[in-house]
Write a structure and sequence with these properties.
Layout (H helix, E strand, L loop, with lengths): L1 E9 L4 H14 L3 E8 L7 E9 L11 E6 L2 H7 L3 E10 L13 E5 L1 H7 L6 H12 L5 H11 L8 H14 L1 E2 L1
Parallel strand pairs: 1-4, 4-5, 5-6
Antiparallel strand pairs: 1-3, 2-3, 6-7
């Protein structure tokens, strides 16, 4: 198994964190991984994306021009990456951030209303974990157990009390993702 994933959105949406947690989850399960972030000079509000490759075998290069899976959290990201998904690939988008839905017919498209669910959970900081849950529902690249271990590894100890909430958000994302 090898999955090449691009995650893209505005800075502050947890794009890089989501990629880092996905990569660490793969490491926790003894998989080969790459994590390659790209972002503008703005700390929040600028565009950001991260490429993550999770594989059972060695990865030859972290540089990709086409992806198996694209997760887009805003319209500029959809406009940029929809054409870069391999035929037969998967596109996951947040219903709040995308105005004009995807148009390709040769990929499988899923919508996850993560922003709405985060508001319902009364915590906007779990937005990215809801999206990650949606990904893991449609393409279980890593296990929930691997994600939980990764959260303990990547979050500062002072935030470990929030891990159960993050795991609840992942479950919520799995429950609300829908095929379009």
């Amino acid at each position: 198994m090898k999955k090449e994933v691009i995650i893209s959105g505005f800075g502050g949406q947890g794009v890089l964190s989501m990629g880092k947690i996905l990569a660490y989850s793969g490491l926790m399960e003894d998989k080969e991984v790459t994590w390659m972030p790209a972002y503008g000079p703005e700390q929040r509000g600028g565009t950001a994306n991260v490429t993550v490759i999770v594989s059972d075998d060695r990865i030859s290069s972290p540089i990709l021009s086409k992806y198996d899976i694209a997760i887009v959290l805003n319209q500029p990201s959809l406009d940029k990456f929809e054409t870069k998904i391999k035929p037969g690939g998967v596109l996951i988008y947040d219903g709040f951030g995308v105005i004009n839905p995807p148009t390709r017919k040769d990929i499988t498209v899923y919508r996850v209303n993560a922003m709405d669910k985060a508001a319902e959970m009364k915590n906007s900081k779990v937005f990215n974990m809801i999206v990650l849950g949606g990904l893991l529902q449609v393409c279980p690249v890593v296990s929930d157990n691997g994600v939980e271990k990764a959260l303990y590894k990547t979050l500062p100890e002072r935030h470990h009390a929030l891990i159960p909430l993050n795991m609840e958000a992942i479950k919520a994302g799995k429950d609300i993702i829908e095929k379009m």
